[in-house]
Amino acid sequence: MHTDSFPGALPARRHLPAAGAGTPVLDVVIPVHNEEKDLQPCVRRLHEHLARTFPYAFRITIADNASTDATPRLATRLAERLDEVRSVRLEQKGRGRALHTVWSASDAPVLAYMDVDLSTDLNALLPLVAPLISGHSDLAIGSRLSRGSRVVRGAKREFLSRSYNLILRGSLQARFSDAQCGFKAIRRDVARVLLPLVEDTGWFFDTELLVLAERAGLRIHEVPVDWVDDPDSRVHILRTAAEDLKGVWRVGRALATGALPLDRLARPFGDDPRDRTLEDVPRGLARQLAGFCTVGVLSTLFYLLLYTTFRSFTGSQPANALALLVSALANTAANRRLTFRVRGRRGVVRHQAQGLVVFAIGLVLTSGSLAALNTATHEPAHSTELAVLVVANLAATILRFLLFRAWVFPERDHFAAGHDPRDSR
């Protein structure tokens, strides 16, 4: 990651006044590489839409990435015929490089970009940039994965897109829903602070910018979009996915080692209130619940694997007891590190001992429920036993989470053991 220079403090959010004569409020960049077929219809359609619906002055910038077909000539012709269109030529490929170059040089207070295929319906453009103009948000993204979106695309792309965004949530703790939709906007003053920190020059540029913005406490506005897949897309899916995963690893490592100066990006106001420590306000409850459930599922699978292994050379009761003990230890360790974000070795033995007590309480609750059922009914039906176990295990799970949160891993212990307060966001 680039850490040799510090770009400066983040600006305060303010409503953007109408720009002076000749200065556009919005600069929409269209990065292209060998797009002679789609360029003219795209630019003309976008120009017509902005001229008809956008209430401020605008500019459309065609960023040509080393095209070898007729794209440069067509871009120049469009710039000559339409006053609000200009063309910029780059001699190297890379969507991220094109956006970095044009955004860094633009004088418009709001910068946006969209793909040349216009897969995203243009009616979402004004809702995309309006929060930036008003000062409500710092960045805005179109999302194909939010509830209000209407998307038409193949199952393969849908699976890859959702998988990638799940990876971002799990590895980089991203909160935004769609990193790769080619429909984004950013305030120029924010871009000039963040762009020097973004290293990628290709398809991962979007993701890296969003992750750094989120970690810096910036507000990202999401707009549900209508999106139709382009069947003629030239994106090499597997190669792009591999590069994206390399980018996730690089950014994650830089964030983990503190190689980025995000802690020095101080705002005059508007920091994320979730970063503040407030009395009597539970922190990170939704994330902890999700982590607890995930660990619970994995622990169950681990228990079944252990039981199967131990059962091959011992009886069912010893195999069950040993598998439960080992999986309980693993469950406590995983919840300590992943769910409650407790770092370091301090308190490990105490946490494991308390975890075994919590496990024993849950075991007594489930076993006691069965014993009570057998006392009340001499030969209960199998379906009745299952119903009792389901209810008892649900109660034991809720009790286990509450005990973990309030007794085993209380909030005050997180910081004593090396917990980063930003992890609880």
UniProtKB/TrEMBL annotation:
Pathway, per record: Protein modification; protein glycosylation
Membrane topology (UniProt): Single-pass membrane protein; Multi-pass membrane protein
Keyword line: Endoplasmic reticulum, Glycosyltransferase, Membrane, Signal-anchor, Transferase, Transmembrane, Transmembrane helix
InterPro entries named among the record's database cross-references: DPG_synthase (IPR035518), Glyco_trans_2-like (IPR001173), GtrA_DPMS_TM (IPR007267), Nucleotide-diphossugar_trans (IPR029044)
TM helices/strands, residue ranges: 289-310, 355-374, 386-403
Cross-referenced PANTHER family: DOLICHYL-PHOSPHATE BETA-GLUCOSYLTRANSFERASE, GLYCOSYL TRANSFERASE
Protein's UniProt name: dolichyl-phosphate beta-glucosyltransferase
Species of provenance: Streptomyces thermospinosisporus
